[in-house]
Structure prediction request, 885 residues.
Amino acid sequence: MNIDYAEKIPNNVDLASNKTLQRALEHWQPEFLHWWDDMGPEGTSRTEIYLRTAVSVDPKGWAHFDYVRMPEYRWGIFLAPGEAERKVNFGAHKGEPAWQEVPGEYRSNLRRLIVTQGDTEPASVEQQRHLGLTCPSLYDLRNLFQVNVEEGRHLWAMVYLLQAYFGRDGREEAEALLERRSGDPDNPRILGAFNEPTPDWLSFFMFTYFTDRDGKYQLCSLAESGFDPLARTCRFMLTEEAHHMFVGESGISRVIQRTCEVMTTHKIDDPAKIRSLGAIDLPTIQRYLNFHFSVTMDLFGADVSSNAATFYSTGLKGRFDETKIEDDHLLTTASYPVLEVRDGILASVQAPALNALNEKLRDDYIRDAASGVERWNKVIEKAGVAFRLRVPHKAFHRRIGPLAAANIDPEGNVVSTEQWTANVERWLPSDTDRAFVASLMGRVVERGKFANWIAPPARGINNQAADFEYVRFN
Amino acid sequence: MDVKAVVSRAEPLRQHLIDPEICIRCNTCEETCPSKAVSHDSRNYVVDATLCNYCNDCISPCPTGAIDNWRMVDKARPYTLTEQLAWDSLPPETPVDAGPTAELPAHIAEITAVASEGQGGTVLAPWSAAHPYVNLYTMQKPAVATVSGNYQLTAEDASCDIRHIVLDFGGVPMPVLEGQTIGIVPPGVGSEGRPHPVRLYSVASPRDGERPHYNNVSLTVKRVTEDHEGRPVRGIASNYLCDLNKGDRVNVVGPYGGTFLMPNHPGSSLFMVCTGTGSAPMRAMTERRRRRIALKEGGELMLFFGARCEAELPYFGPLMKLPKDFIDINFAFSRVPGKVKQYVQDRIRERSADVVRLLNDQNCYVYICGLKGMEQGVDEAFRVACREQGEDWGTLLPALRAQGRYHVETY
Prediction:
């Protein structure tokens, strides 16, 4: 191996002078590329894509646009600038200087947090690897690949932490991240939602809107960590995560816009007629929304969790906007409402706030996710169509935690198994829905052209036009 | 024809705003902003105009481009945070507002600065002037007008060709006040392969249109066939305009001009001095007043108008039909065979009593428009007239300027 890693891996962690880390990366980097070839976007090794590459962490340097072949993407390692005198801001160590090394007693918990976060990054690349074959436009194809390479970079960010701070264990975990496979029953990814397929672009947009937003909230919580390198790494990752949520929010918004155009042009609201004109009817969009929202709800973990309490009180993982919250940042006496099924209905009960941190983060997330759905509703409203999308109840279609045992409809009513079975096709995408959406997924790669089921974007990437040549096939 | 000042009476501010329709509320801008100018509530992300220092650090990290929005506003009244927080979409967009090129184009600013030199720097618009819209259409996004008329104002045998050209904007908004200018973009490129420069023309029609309540504007254009020194030269824009036929389409930029504006309060008087096509803004203002005669708002109109002869005096016929008690007209002809050369300054001196009475009237506003050469003569005429009436022009002029009562555009 004779690679100038300092050049090949843009970084602000002084890679050039850290021999141990260099050796570790020399070993891992070829494996990563091998994984990328194997599991990354299919058939794209020679494709040139107009991508954003971070070359430094300052605002001017981290959004550098140029044509890049994905295997040659410069996956960099960046930490947001350090804060002098940063403290641990919550838990038992509140007020102590933030840790620059891993505290021995928290080593395994911290590793677990990093591995769980890191595992989602390659997982989503795997989930999305076939989507390029059915892209609705060059613009969307480029956005998909941007998401993919940045998930790759996020993997690098986590692997850097593992290799730089966790020695041999860390190296092994870094390798395991490349070995698990999304949806592989023998060696699956750690979290459920990351083993679900992303079969079509509607799912992809829903995934980037709902599931990547979970990423945002997890990263925000980890960005509060007392372990400073983790906090700084996550803070920088958040800037990139924003692009992924943008792809989702604007993607769904454009699908809705196109549907509304078809509805108003032809003065129809019958889903069958809308489908016959090649657009995705709003009830189907609602069912996809219900699915992705509920699957994402599970990503936050059990409503009452002792792990969450431990991570918090040991200063490893904070709350969303921890430092902006005005309380004791210890939560030893506070309580927080969680839901449980009591006498056949959902009831709110008080749990110790420390144990209900997953629920708190879930609620923060819901507020954010629901406000974006309202922005979609504005598109519908503007078109003069009488329909409203809504996020389902947070207890709907859960598979993790005590609520998984009950059948709960999108309104939050506990229903019988019979009622559930009778209505599930109204609430969640049916095989017919998925087959219909799949039937629309033809590949559009002509410059400036967009598939019939989606409107062009209001604005191109980096101020380029919508018909810019975002992807060059070679 | 005339070039006009584009000095806004309000200090303009290029306000940085976020498009709530595109923004995904990812918080990246707030996180990035070093001056803490970005904040949010549960609805919108907003920029505090008093804190934003235009460092642009937030621009490239924004995944959507929502952050890259700008509006020209009155510095004293930018959009407040409360206003921005209530938005569902950005306020109505004018093409120039869309991008960072919203400032007045440098070449326009240059032309207009030269044109308004004669008034001795920036002056204020009359206090009762209507608020002007400026810079709505740019070279990148011009408004397209259709020619609905092209009439010769000068007699067939006159030595020059002055035309009254009516442009119809159809459904394209072109709010323009008397005294403002619009820019004409001649098609094609010059010998160096660059587009022809924009030429500015004062509108000759009042704010409600050449034909009342139609979205049209008239211009007074003299076909340029020689330069100031009398050497033959073919003016690109003027010849293009004079040769237009009904139905032709014309690219228009502007409007420009934020101070050479007429007062609107009842009882206000207009003191107008012009030569040749410098009569365009005077015609616009006079026509505005004429259409409102029935309102009996009071105030006087006094006009000094110079040309070589009657045949070359634009709007001579219509002017002669105006009631004597509506406007006090003083012509000066410099090339009438067998007669002494008369210039506007001569007529001003002859009328010194009325001139000085009006200059002293707080409700009277002075407008001077025409060839650059007339400036000095008019200034001297005012000085002499004042002396004759026992006044001092040297102290009167600064007062006129300070009160937004003295406006000069020469070319």
User: Anything to note?
Assistant: Chain A touches chain B through 25 residues (CB under 8 Å). The longest helix of chain A spans residues 228-266. Residues 5-472 of chain A form a domain with the Ribonucleotide Reductase, subunit A fold (CATH 1.10.620.20).
